[in-house]
Amino acid sequence: MTREELVQSFYEVYGKTGGEPVCVFSPGRVNLIGEHTDYNGGHVFPCALTIGTYFAARKRDDRRVRFFSGNFSRAGLMERSLDRLEFDPSKGFSNYLMGMIWTYREKRGLMPDTGMDIYLKGDMPHASGLSSSASVEVGMGQVLNALFGFEVDPFDLAVLGQFSENHYNGLNCGIMDQFAIAMGKKDRAIFLDTAALSYEYAPIALDGMKILIICTNKKRGLVDSKYNERRAECDEAVRELRQVVEIQTLGELSPEVFDKVKYAIANPTVVRRARHAVYENERTVRAVELLKAGDIEGFGKLMNQSHISLRDDYEVTGIELDTIAEAAWKVDGCIGARMTGAGFGGCAVAIVKDEAVESFREQVGKAYLEKVGYAADFYAVEIGDGTHVF
Ligand code: GLA
Description:
Blueprint: H1 3-14, E1 22-31, E2 43-44, E3 46-59, E4 64-69, E5 78-81, H2 94-108, E6 116-122, H3 132-148, H4 154-167, H5 176-183, E7 188-193, E8 198-203, E9 209-215, H6 223-241, H7 255-261, H8 268-292, H9 296-312, H10 318-329, E10 334-340, E11 347-353, H11 357-372, E12 377-381, E13 388-389
Parallel strand pairs: 4-6
Antiparallel strand pairs: 1-3, 1-13, 2-7, 3-6, 4-5, 7-8, 9-11, 9-12, 10-11
The structure holds alpha-D-galactopyranose (GLA).
Residues 35-36, 38-39, 131, 173-174, 176-177, 341-342 line the site of alpha-D-galactopyranose (GLA).
């Protein structure tokens, strides 16, 4: 969407009186490898996309805060107030936006002095698991910065976005999504150590290849509760392991040490959950080394292994994502494919040679339709910059 189109849509809802709005773009993200490691003190390797959420916003001269989503225009104008910042379950997506106002006040003592009118519209596939909620949270932070002159830098935006998601919206997510979205850079993935919050950018030079996102189109119902359940299982593993080894998180364990101490975990299911977290972390570190050495084939093989571990040990894939990954692995010219994000539906990511993209779509699309009964969607995506004013 161009700036002119966005501003035009804003005027259609709120009128021209009051002047030009500020415009912000906040991307979605895809994680290339390192899944369900970010709340275990491990490594992740995500990047920001060139698709995401567009915001146009203007100050008001009262205390009302109004939102209009171009994706849910039938819902009409949503109205909240600066004097009632608390979570309101009847107010849908506006909680992701109000959550940031609340978080700015709670964590940084920053409070807008007036209300505001906000128009937002996303161009990511709906409910795809490309992290539209983090995109909205971090984007809202940038809107507050732009409108009220708050100086919250991108690193801090990520931290505050995660805080808002955890403490206002109640999903106990790690920091990966907000970090990738706030800190993303064009043509770079972010190698982030979630324990130290130290990071480096790695160039993704995919000459002659595409990053494809394959959307399951599965309705995601139980994601939040399953997600929180996996977190609790990892916490249980840490508690039991601490009888025999001094750790704070699973990310501190190498696979070798884990295999020696795993006897301390009573429940075999919990052993598998912990094994995924430990091995996936090690795989992510190795994958980035391979990529830096130019070994994209080796990187792709680790993506495949990541999926297998998420399927068998962590059990967050399901028939939809497994069908996509398993069909993808059979396509000549597919470098690697795996589920990405939280799982339980959402989408998969694949690296595919340019000349194989068409047959990839055909073969994976056919296998999916046959097995699952409805179609998957395919998107070639590009790696873009983090949340910014434009
Ligand atoms: C969701 C969460 C992230 C991360 C992934 C799994 O996207 O928001 O913090 O835990 O799942 O890797």
